[in-house]
Amino acid sequence: MSATYHILTQKDLHPAGQQEHDFSTDVLIGLSQMPKQLSSKYFYDERGSQLFQEIMELPEYYLTSCEFEIISEQKEKISQDMAGEPFNLIEFGTGDGRKTKILLKNFLKKGFEFYYIPIDISEAAMKTLIKSMNKEFPELKTEGIVAEYFNGLKWLKNTAFRKNLVLFLGSNLGNFDKAHSRAFLHNLWNILNNGDSVVIGFDLKKDIDLMLKAYNDSQGVTAEFNLNLLRRINRELGGNFDLEKFRFYAGYDVFTGAIESYLVSLEQQEVFIEKIGQSFVFNSWEPIHTEYSYKYLESDIEELAGRTGFFIKKQLYDSKSYFVDSVWIVNKQDRHV
Ligand code: AVI
Question: How far is the CA of 174 from the centre of ligand 1 (A)?
Answer without folding.
Answer: 8
